[in-house]
Here is the input.
Amino acid sequence: MNGRIFSVILLPTSECNVACDYCFEHKEPHRLSPALLPLLTQRLLDHLEHENIEVCEIYWQGGEAMIMGPEWFADAGRLMGRAAAERGRKFVHYLQTNLISYSPSWNRVIHGMFSGSVGTSMDYPNVHRKLFKGGPEAYTKLWTKRLHEARAAGIKIGVIAVLHQASLEAGAERFYRYFTEELGLDDFQVNTPFAGGPAKDVEGGFQLDNGELARFLGELFDIWIQKGYDAGVSLGPFDALIDHFIGRPARLPCIWKENCSNQFISVDARGTVAQCDCWVTSYPEYFFGNMFREPDLTRMLKTSRARRDFVERPKHLMEHEDCLACRYLSICHGGCPVRTYSAKGTLLAKDPYCEVYKVVFARAEAHGQEILRQRSAGKGLAVRLDSLRTGVTATA
Amino acid sequence: MGQSLINEGSGRVSAPLEPEWPILFLPSDSASGHSSSPFVAVVRSRAELSRWLINPPAGLQWLQVEELLEDQDAWIPAAQSTSNVPVDVVISSPASQFSDLYQLVDVFAVRDVRVSMPASPGFLRALKVAVALRLPVRLLPGQPSPEVLIELTEAVSFYLRDPMVETPVEFFHSVLAAMCGAGDGSLWMILEEDPALFLHRGVDDGFKIRGISSSPSPDLFSTTFVDTWFKRLLEQNAECATCPWQQICQGYFKWPDPAYDCRGVKRLFSAVEAVANEMGRELACRDHTGPEKELGKLGSIATS
Here is the structure.
């Protein structure tokens, strides 16, 4: 029993100021009107009230969220905070941005509304993230400059890196050193790629061999354990997996939730509601409805035929896939619906990265056991019991 | 109201520390007038479930929910934290209902949930899904057939040896704790079937023990049932007399058919004992705190 969390991935615009090759979004010049924000807020609060949920996490993304400007966010944060407080609820805000248009004018809203931290994205090597005028090199140069400026302003930065073929060719060691040594980061995560929306046309270029990907991730995991774990470097999703395997509370990424349909939705600037940003920007056939046209979000989620597929997916996987025989079922549950859909054209199958995940899970389990074993010299008993149950003795 | 449904590791079941025994299990309708002394309401409809969740009286310990797992809408109010009444979800056909356990994900986020299931053929699928969802399980073995015993053997190994299992699976969990010196309850108590502690009332106002009504043998059905039944078995020279597990079993597997052959269940006990011994040896290697003190912690640690 841990309390329900409801999250909304909110896209105030689909516009973007860069031109990345693998972006799955339709970049439309549409922005969330300040006139509609109170209505959106009211609908969210109605839903929270109906579901008896106290806190709602808002993940502001895009398009590029910073296109809206700092004042827009300051106003939005004030309006939403006031409306929530009146109804005994709370919004907690997070910002995901490409940082390209970051300037000191953002500092106040970032330190206030976003608690001094933002998420951004960069790959290594960067071959696919591009400015409209200028290639990947120009993008990397500008992004790195913005990163340093933001950090100098006391902003904590977390970076998402999407893996691609050149990452695998560069190797895990160079990849890790780029983020930790060259950029000086202590918080980043790796995502597996998938091709949705417009990017599907060029998906061939982003498809990775599962064996190569698994090998890369396994090596990266080892390097992080060796160099970063004790040094306080957070590398997702490895850090959450280690937490899990050493018995700490772990917040695993959404791709491995019991059922992501229970925990979040995404809403775009037009009010379109879908499962997550990937769905709301890429797959109209899986829209749940429209927040501005339908007065009751709870009812929309309950009655949406499209959403039913998400709700029933885990049940279907248990009955028709081999997930039940997998020892990692409790930390995977069949994986990510959008990765499945983009690769297989159906939700009702397990994640195409299944074999990659198994390698990562096994690595996490082995490292977790080793961490516990090392600690057992001083504390012991819990480790011994854990070892007993795995058939491995701590004294061996 | 709202006590834990999970064995906290002492070897005792979920009952309050100083309860007014026994806890009465009442059909929802009969339970309506009940308020102060401890009771469990047995609900079988969406309306009943919703009603008890909204206005739980002080004596309500938990809800025993039957025949509702597949009803998606029934679980919506249970996933809203208007009250924290725990629910014990009884699944009658685990082999076919295992995937429906995903209905309980939201419910478990706001209240304690336990899954109870008969050890019927194919139950292991439901056990694995429940464990993957971190739901505590109460496995009701009854008098298992040879087919089910094979599955129980696999289940006990899964529970004892698989590090991915994080939640207690009864009766394995409390038997392990007892064998490690951290509990002294019998299977009757562990599985909430001892009428001295858990009195199950049927719709006809009579009492039931494992689904069997009291009317044919009222002399046996009393709060001293376990003692009476076990003595009767010993007097009849049942194999219990020489059974090494008689203390924890107390004739559980001989009910209702005293001629039931216990060889299979003895092997299950032996498997649990082997792990208990393994743990004991490991703990004995610890020097500073001493094994006895450490053994006292076993139950809670095993579930962490």
Remarks:
- The beta strands of chain A are 6-10, 55-60, 90-95, 117-121, 156-162, 187-191, 234-236, 264-267, 272-274, 289-290.
- The first strand of chain A starts at residue 6 and ends at 10.
- Chain A touches chain B at residues 1-5, 50-52, 247, 258-259, 262, 302, 311, 314-316, 318-319, 324, 327-331, 333, 365, 369, 380-382, 384-391, 393-395 (CB under 8 Å).
